[in-house]
Amino acid sequence: MPELPEVETVRRGLLPAMEGQRIALAEVRRPDLRWPFPERMAERLTGKVVERLWRRSKYILMELSGGETLLMHLGMSGRVLVSGDPLGQFEYEHPAAEKHDHVVLHMENGARITFNDPRRFGAMDLLVTGQEDAHPLLASLGPEPLGNSFDESYLVDRLRGRNTPIKSALLDQRVVAGLGNIYVCEALFRAGISPMRKAARISPQRIASLVPIIRAVLAEAIAAGGSSLRDYRRADGELGYFQHSFDVYGREGEACRTCGAPVLRMVQSGRSSFYCGACQR
DNA sequence: AAGTAGTCCTGAGTGC
DNA sequence: TGCACTCAGGACTACT
To answer: What are the residue boundaries of the Formamidopyrimidine-DNA glycosylase catalytic domain, all occurrences included (predicted)?
Structure first.
């Protein structure tokens, strides 16, 4: 379930098992995901210590001893399972290998990190630590929505004159990095803005109002995801509790929580937009 | 330049 | 039970 809050939840789940720990063995079970893996990836990971685990947009970056950083993206269907009991923190045994377990990191501390991705829209690459901004996948990303450079004046400037629907503009990773279909739908509902409205035809005040709303939606989702790490270790496939808090996403035909009108769905550039036709203008 | 379709891939769910 | 069909959290590429 990877949008920014889910990726951040995964990162936090990996921290206790991986940070400062050595990869005893990297198992790479196929040659590619969306793109071919880098040359000799298994050998380049094996024996390295994970010195820092951070996130940029929907990418997890694993800084390794030896000067390389592993870049990971979970695509649409990517999952990460932490198993084992290295520090007495993990209650569950290693599960049996499953279909689509493409990469497995066996940590020296006994933890096992399994990357599973049925649709294989995910990606992994190795880059030189310190040169992250030059990587093609990261180079044109916009600001982090929870960071300081994402503020009201930035968003107003960035969207000024844009003739595209606000929904598409917010999904554009060059505008703001890390939002996906769910959280754009939710933020637009809270802001009372129709997903079909052209960005250029929304007042600066309403554009500005999106900034604190986007931050709040993401922060709440991260908090809910964090609370469910135990579920995640249980490997039941469910990430977080925030899906129970959706106002519009996936609620077509159900009552708007504000006005009671049925939630509507329409397709914009191939993606479903959920919205309240009465509350969002 | 900006905006929009088509595309990769597998699995879950639905209706007949 | 089987089959055909739709849909899915992303984002790159190739069009207009």
So the answer is: 2-122
What are A30's two structure tokens? 């196929």
Write the Ramachandran bin of A196: left for phi over 0, alpha for psi from -120 to 50, otherwise beta.
Answer: alpha
Q: Domain spans of chain A? A: 4-134, 152-276
Q: Which CATH architecture has domain A152-276?
A: Orthogonal Bundle (1.10)
Element of type H or E holding A220: helix A204-226
Near strand C (CB < 7 A), which residues?
A 1-3, 6, 34, 57-58, 73, 75-76, 119, 121, 137, 171, 173, 180-182, 239, 243, 267, 270-272
> Model confidence over A157-167: pLDDT tens digits?
999 999 999 99
Give yes or no on whether A4-134 and A152-276 have one common fold. Answer: no
For the cut 70, the answer to whether the pLDDT of residue A239 exceeds it is no
Residue A231 predicted with pLDDT over 50: no
Per-residue pLDDT averaged across A253-263, rounded? 95
Set A48, A58, A167, A190: catalytic member:
A58
Q: Which residue is nearest to nucleotide B9 (CA to C1')?
A: A119
